Amino acid sequence: MSVFAGAWRRFAAAGLLAALAALPQGARAADVVVVSNQGATPGVREIAAAFERASGQKVTVVQEAGAPLDQRLANGPADLITGNPGQIDDLVKKGRVVAGSAVPFALASLGVSVREGARKPDISTVEAYKAALLAAKSIGYSRGCSGTNAAAGIEALGLSAQLKAKTVLVDGGPVVEYLAKGDFEIGIQQTNIMVGVPGTDYVGPPPGALNKPCPSSVALLTVSKQPDAARALIKFIVSPEAAPLLRKTYVEPATP
C-alpha cells in the first residue's frame, strides 16, 4: 500500500465516511453538483471522483457561463461553486453564496505553449522570456485571471505597447484550442489546462515573479439542496489528502 493510499484510508475511515454515514439517507439521494470555473475543473473532477469512491455520494461537475450559469445559481441544481476569490465575494454580496463558506483550495501557475511541432522558445530566464515574446509573430491569452496575470507580466517587462498589435485576447474556451488552430504562435494560460492538449506542445512556466498563479476558492451555494453532503465535500477538497489529487492536475493546494 502506498503512503497516499494509507493516508487516504485513514482519513476516510476517521472522518469523511463517518460524517456522510450520519446524514439522512435522503440527503445522499441526489447528486452533489459542483459548478466549476474553467481553471479549476481538472482538479475538481479528480477530487470528485475520489470523494465518490470513498463516500458513495454521487458528484456531478459542470462548467457553465453566462445565462445558463445565472439560471443554475438562481434555481439549481447546484450545491458548490469554485472560482476566483473576487468572483466568490461578488456572489456572496448577491446572495448566491453562503457567507463565510468560501475556502481557498488551489493555485494554478501560468504556462506557455506553442503549436505542435513548432520550435519551443527558451523562456528559462526573464531575458529569454522577453526575447521570445518579442520574436513571436502573435501571442494569445484569455480575459480571465490567467490573462490578467500574463498581461501584468508583459507590462512588468515594459512590452505592453510593443506587443499590443500582435496580441489576441481569447473569449471563451481554453487558449490552447485557438493555439492548435493556428490563431497565434504562443499561448499563455494556466498550466493545468494546457499540458497534453492535442495540436499543442507545452513549453513551461514563465520565469520567476512573472509566473503569478491564479487562485480558486470553493463555496456553498444558497440554492443547495444538499448542504451537509456539500460541506463534507468542501472538507475533503481542502484536506491534506486531496493535495496529491490537485498536484496530479498541475495545480498546487492553497495550503501546502
Folded structure, characterized:
The strands form two sheets. The protein has a six-stranded mixed beta sheet. It has a five-stranded mixed beta sheet with strand order 7-6-8-5-9. The radius of gyration is 20 Å and the shape is elongated. Helix 2 (41-55) links the parallel strand 1 (32-35) and strand 2. It folds into two domains: 3-107 and 214-253, D-Maltodextrin-Binding Protein, domain 2; 110-210, Periplasmic binding protein-like II (D-Maltodextrin-Binding Protein, domain 2), CATH 3.40.190. Helices cover 40% and strands 20% of the residues. It is of the alpha/beta class. It is built from ten helices and eleven strands.
Topology of this structure?
Layout: H1 3-21, E1 32-35, H2 41-55, E2 59-62, H3 66-75, E3 80-83, H4 85-93, E4 103-108, E5 110-115, H5 126-135, E6 139-142, H6 145-156, H7 160-163, E7 167-170, H8 175-180, E8 186-190, E9 200-204, E10 214-220, H9 227-237, H10 243-248, E11 252-253
Parallel strand pairs: 1-2, 1-3, 6-7, 6-8
Antiparallel strand pairs: 3-10, 4-10, 4-11, 5-8, 5-9
CATH H level, superfamily name of the largest domain: Periplasmic binding protein-like II
**Helical residue percent band:** 25-40%
Report the CATH architecture of the largest domain.
Answer: 3-Layer(aba) Sandwich
CATH topology of the largest domain: D-Maltodextrin-Binding Protein, domain 2
**H-E string:** HEHEHEHEEHEHHEHEEEHHE
Largest sheet: 6 strands, mixed
Strand order of the largest sheet: 2-1-3-10-4-11
Decide which structural class fits the backbone: alpha/beta
- The count of strands amounts to 11
Count up the domains: 2
Query: What percentage of amino acids are in beta strands?
Result: 15-25%
Rg (CA only): 20 Å
What is the average of the pLDDT values?
Answer: 90
The backbone outline, from C-alpha atoms, is elongated
